[in-house]
């Protein structure tokens, strides 16, 4: 059976950074799929039905002709190697692939938690408690994120167009979706970093309209924060 005719189901919440990275990849590469929305703020990830699918109660999850897979890294690599997509996403060259794996491993303890922490403190916690953000905690979170951004510039991006070389890869999708998340409070963490801001623009250009389509709910949060 051709990969593009398979029945791929995708369980996501568009406010989840890894879910947006997954949908960017699927839509840009025209991989047919059915979206199953799992609204985290309503606790839909804890329902018995979803828990049977993913006992970890997290998104994203895919079901590909009965094959269930969780964890965004594993999902993206699986799709890039199973479906007919351009090789630049996850090249067969072992050294380039190793660089992508290197970033994706580092991402989980650096870019992801540090960018998410800012969003949690400035958006989620105030919504849950009714209290304004804790300024000192936000300051510390921004300092941690700044160190991560320094490493992104000096260790990964360097003078090349994308994190792992001359072409966009899975690493860029995961990274940019995390770094967009603080926009939910109206905070653009890349605007004062010309190198990273230009990198973001290259990703947006590569993904075309799909980038903004996938971030539409985040943009709405940003616009509300500006009022």
UniProtKB/TrEMBL annotation:
<dbReference type="InterPro" id="IPR040077">
    <property type="entry name" value="GST_C_Theta"/>
</dbReference>
<dbReference type="GO" id="GO:0005737">
    <property type="term" value="C:cytoplasm"/>
</dbReference>
<keyword id="KW-0808">Transferase</keyword>
<dbReference type="InterPro" id="IPR051369">
    <property type="entry name" value="GST_Theta"/>
</dbReference>
<dbReference type="Pfam" id="PF13409">
    <property type="entry name" value="GST_N_2"/>
</dbReference>
<dbReference type="InterPro" id="IPR040075">
    <property type="entry name" value="GST_N_Theta"/>
</dbReference>
<dbReference type="GO" id="GO:0004364">
    <property type="term" value="F:glutathione transferase activity"/>
</dbReference>
<dbReference type="InterPro" id="IPR040079">
    <property type="entry name" value="Glutathione_S-Trfase"/>
</dbReference>
<keyword id="KW-0963">Cytoplasm</keyword>
<dbReference type="Pfam" id="PF00043">
    <property type="entry name" value="GST_C"/>
</dbReference>
<feature type="domain" description="GST N-terminal">
    <location>
        <begin position="6"/>
        <end position="87"/>
    </location>
</feature>
<protein>
    <recommendedName>
        <fullName>glutathione transferase</fullName>
        <ecNumber>2.5.1.18</ecNumber>
    </recommendedName>
</protein>
<dbReference type="InterPro" id="IPR036282">
    <property type="entry name" value="Glutathione-S-Trfase_C_sf"/>
</dbReference>
<dbReference type="InterPro" id="IPR004046">
    <property type="entry name" value="GST_C"/>
</dbReference>
<comment type="similarity">
    <text>Belongs to the GST superfamily. Theta family.</text>
</comment>
<comment type="subunit">
    <text>Homodimer.</text>
</comment>
<feature type="domain" description="GST C-terminal">
    <location>
        <begin position="93"/>
        <end position="227"/>
    </location>
</feature>
<dbReference type="InterPro" id="IPR010987">
    <property type="entry name" value="Glutathione-S-Trfase_C-like"/>
</dbReference>
<dbReference type="GO" id="GO:0006749">
    <property type="term" value="P:glutathione metabolic process"/>
</dbReference>
<dbReference type="InterPro" id="IPR004045">
    <property type="entry name" value="Glutathione_S-Trfase_N"/>
</dbReference>
<dbReference type="InterPro" id="IPR036249">
    <property type="entry name" value="Thioredoxin-like_sf"/>
</dbReference>
């Amino acid at each position: 059976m051709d990969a593009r005719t398979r029945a791929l189901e995708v369980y996501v919440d568009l406010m989840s950074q890894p879910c947006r990275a997954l949908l960017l990849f699927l839509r840009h590469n025209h991989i047919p799929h059915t979206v199953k929305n799992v609204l985290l703020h309503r606790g839909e990830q804890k329902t018995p039905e979803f828990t049977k699918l993913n006992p970890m109660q997290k998104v994203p999850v895919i079901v590909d002709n009965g094959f269930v897979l969780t964890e965004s890294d594993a999902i993206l690599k699986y799709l890039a190697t199973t479906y007919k997509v351009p090789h630049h996403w996850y090249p067969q060259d072992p050294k380039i692939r190793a660089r992508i794996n290197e970033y994706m491993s580092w991402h989980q303890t650096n870019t992801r938690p540090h960018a998410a922490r800012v969003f949690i403190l400035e958006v989620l916690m105030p919504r849950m408690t009714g209290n304004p953000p804790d300024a000192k905690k936000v300051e510390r979170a921004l300092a941690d994120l700044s160190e991560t951004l320094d490493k992104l510039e000096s260790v990964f991006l360097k003078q090349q167009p994308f994190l792992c070389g001359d072409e966009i890869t899975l690493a860029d999708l995961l990274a940019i979706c995390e770094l967009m998340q603080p926009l939910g409070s109206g905070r653009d963490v890349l605007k004062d970093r010309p190198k990273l801001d230009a990198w973001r623009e290259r990703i947006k250009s590569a993904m075309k309209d799909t980038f903004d389509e996938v971030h539409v709910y985040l943009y709405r949060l940003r616009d509300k924060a500006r009022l």
